[in-house]
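Fresh eyes needed here. I'd like your take on this protein's tokenised backbone:
***
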Amino acid sequence: MYQIIDDINTTRFKGLKILKLSGTDDKEILFISLEKNSVFKKHTSPKDAQLIVLEGCITFHINQNEYDLNKHQTFSFRKDEEHWVETKENSSFLIIR
């Protein structure tokens, strides 16, 4: 019944990739990878969320502000707030919501 899943290690950088690592009605974890100079277009989250940068550096845009986030930094944001992400290098992060 136990299973090791290696999706984070085996995902290659190519544009934007979103993988749902786990999820229930209460909580889900998404793995997002962005290739260098890629953009995750404007969108909203259905729940309050926590972002954790695993690799690289991203610029998180929300409420006319920019936040540069580096490896191992975290950022919280509220549901229904429009935001978008861009990167200048290959980057990956988790969204827990």
The mean pLDDT is 96. The beta strands are 16-23, 28-34, 39-43, 49-55, 57-62, 65-70, 74-77, 83-87, 91-96. The CA atoms of residues 6 and 21 lie 10 Å apart. Residues 7-10 form the longest helix (4 residues).
